[in-house]
Amino acid sequence: ITPATSPAIDCSLGNYFTIDCSSTNVTGTWTLTNVPTTKSYSLVIEITTGGSTTIDWDSISVNGGGAGNTIKWNGGAVPSFAASKPHLVILTTDDTGATWLATSLVDFATV
Description:
Blueprint: E1 8-10, E2 16-21, E3 30-33, E4 41-49, E5 60-62, E6 70-73, E7 86-93, E8 99-105
Parallel strand pairs: 1-3, 2-4, 3-5, 6-8
Antiparallel strand pairs: 4-7, 7-8
């Protein structure tokens, strides 16, 4: 995914995407195109953050529609991401992208 304030994901390209947000704040609408309309679909976004990265998950546009799609987060809250570590966000929909269930695996580090 090209780092941008409003990232775009073409779901026909697969279901694992990476974005480096170490120097870009995501403050606009996430745009997902080509979300399958006949089956459930899941995708993983690997995110690398910087020291003061902001990522807004409030607005998602799916298949050319408006930005009113909903994300329901595991635990009821958007996760926090530590700086300079990789994080995985997993999104799943079974209604053509109108509603997304989301969870995250955060703060990966070598031990």
